[in-house]
Amino acid sequence: MSKVATRFAPSPTGALHIGGVRTALFNWLFSKNQKGTFHLRIEDTDKERSKEEYKIQIIKSLKWIGIEHDGEEYIQSQKIEDHIKIANELLKKGNAYKCYCSAEEIEEQKKRARQKKMPYIYNRKWRDSDEKDVPKDIKPVIRFKSKINGNSKLKDLVQGDIEIENNTIEDFIILRNDGTPTYNLSATVDDHQMRMTHIIRGDDHKINTFKQIQIYQAMGWDVPEFAHIPLIHTIEGKKLSKRDNASTLDDYSKIGIMPDALRNYLLRLGWSYQDKEIFTLDESIKCFNLEGIGKSPSKLDISRILSLNEHYIKTIDENDLYQNLFEYCKIYKEEIKSDKETKIKSSLSFLKNKAKTLEDIYNNAKFIINDEVNFNKDDFKLIDDKAKKIISEFIKELSLISNINKESLEPVVNNLIKKNDTNFKGVGQPIRIALTGSKFGPGLYDIVIALGKEEVLIRLDKIIS
Q1: Neighbouring residues of 359: CB distance < 8 A, sequence distance ≥ 6
Q2: Beta bridge partners of 162
Q3: Cβ distance 57 to 36 under 8 Å?
Q4: What is the pLDDT tens value at each position of the chain, 465 positions in all?
Q5: Where in 9-150 does DSSP place strands (E)?
Q6: Of 6, 141, 313, 406, which one is least surrounded by beta carbons within 10 A?
C-alpha cells in the first residue's frame, strides 16, 4: 500500500466556507494519523470568478485554524494541457466521442425531460455516429462514453456500499466546445498526478465519484479510496450555503472565536470518539479515524461554538489567552501597546469572567487599553454634584493608601457609603463611570487595582476639574 496522501481542493471564488474547513480538517487529520501527506489544490479554472485575494485568504484561514499543507500549493489552471491531453487519449481509445448537438437541441431534450417530470439525461445521439455526418458549423464538445449496462458499486469508507445503475449516468462532457476541460476530467487527472490515495469530500460529490471512477478505469489507473462526508446544515435543517451568516471562517474570527475552540467544534461536528468532547491538537491527530464519521448531516450550532470558546477562555494558559487577544485586537480592533501588556495579563482573571469571546474580553479591557476614557453620554450625565463630591472624597482617601488591594479599598468605600448616606452603587457607580466611561463592566475594586493608583488619580482628577 502506498503512503496515504489526501488533498483539499477549494475554488478561490469566495471566502472559505465553514463546510470546506471541516472537509480540510478531516483530510488533514486522517493523513497525519496515517503518517501520510496532506496537499492543497487550488481549483482556479473559473477565470471569471477566481481571485488571487481569495486564494491568499484560503491559505491564511487554514493556517489560522492550524492546518498546514505539505509541499507547494498545486494550481489547477497550470495543468490544463495535461487535462486536454487525457481527453484526447480517451477519444483515441474509444472511451470518449465528439458530440455535435447544438445548444438548442440540448435545451429541447431538457424541456422534454421536464415535461415528463424525469431527470434529464443526454440522449447519446452522437455516441456511435459516423464522423462523415458531422455538421460543419458546430464546434463539438467531447463526451465520456459512460457504461450503459449493469450496476456500479462503490465501497465508501463512510457511507458503506453504494450501488447505482450505470444507465443513470449520462455521457458527461469532459471537454467543452471552447477546448476547456470540465471539473470531472480535471479533478480526476489532478488526483491521479498528485498520487492521491484517499478522496475525502462532501456527499454532494457522490455522483461525480461514479463518473470519475469510470475515467480511472478507462485510463487503467489505480482508483483511490473514497469517503463521502454528510453536509453541514443550518439549525433549521437546511443546507448551509455561503450566503448564510456565520458560514465563513472570518465570520468567527472577527467576533473573537479562538482557532483551537473552532477546530475542536468542527472536529466533533459529525465525528465522535467514545464520549470525549475536548481534544488537544495532538489528541485529534491520534484519535481521528473515518469510522467515527456519522452518516447523517450535522447542524451548525453557534451557541455550542460560543460555549466551547468560553471553555477554552477559562481553561487555557493565560499567556496563550493574552496572545490570542493581542492577535485579535491587532486585526479587528486596535493594537495593544506594549506598556499595557503587564496590566492586561495580571487582570485577565477578571477580564475573562463570563466572557464567551475575545471581543467580550476586549470590551471588558477597553478601560486599560485606551489612555483616554470614552464616555457613554447617558452614563456621563449621572456624574452630578453629589457624585463629584464622592469622587473628591475618594481621591483624598486613595492618596493616603500606599498598597492598593481589595483589603485596603473596602474600608474606604464603606466609609464613603456611611458618610454620604448611600449604598455601594451610590459610591461605586460614579467612580466606575469616571474610570471606564460606562456604568457597566468589571467590579470596582478590580478596575482600581488594574489601573493602579497613579492612573486612577489622573482619571478622577480630570472629572473633578
Answers
A1: 255, 256, 328, 332
A2: 154
A3: no
A4: 589 999 999 999 988 889 999 999 999 999 999 999 999 999 998 888 999 999 999 999 999 999 999 999 999 999 999 999 999 999 999 999 999 999 899 999 999 989 999 888 899 999 988 777 788 888 999 999 999 999 999 999 999 999 999 999 999 999 999 999 999 999 999 999 999 999 999 999 999 999 999 999 999 999 999 999 999 988 887 777 666 666 788 889 999 999 999 999 999 999 999 999 999 999 999 999 999 999 999 999 999 999 999 999 999 999 999 999 999 999 999 999 999 999 999 999 999 999 999 999 999 999 999 999 988 888 888 899 898 999 999 999 999 999 999 999 999 999 999 999 999 999 999 999 999 999 998 999 999 999 999 999 999 999 888
A5: 37-42, 74-75, 96-99, 141-144
A6: 406
Could you identify the residue written with the cell 443526454? Answer: 122
User: How long is the chain?
Assistant: 465
> How far is 107 from 359, CA to CA, in rounded Å?
53
Question: Would you list the DSSP string of 53-118?
Answer: HHHHHHHHHHHHTT---SSSPEEGGGGHHHHHHHHHHHHHTTSEEEE---HHHHHHHHHHHHHTT-
Q: Are 149 and 143 in contact (CB under 8 A)?
A: no
Site of grid cell 453536509: 231
Alpha-helical segments (H) within 220-258: 249-253
C-alpha R_g of the chain:
31
Q: How many CB atoms lie within 10 A of CB 192?
A: 19
The Cα–Cα gap between 313 and 331 comes to 19
Contact 351, 344 (CB under 8 A): yes
Per DSSP, the three-state class of 424 is helix
Half-sphere exposure of 272 (CA within 13 A, CB side): 6
Q: What is the pTM of this model?
A: 0.91
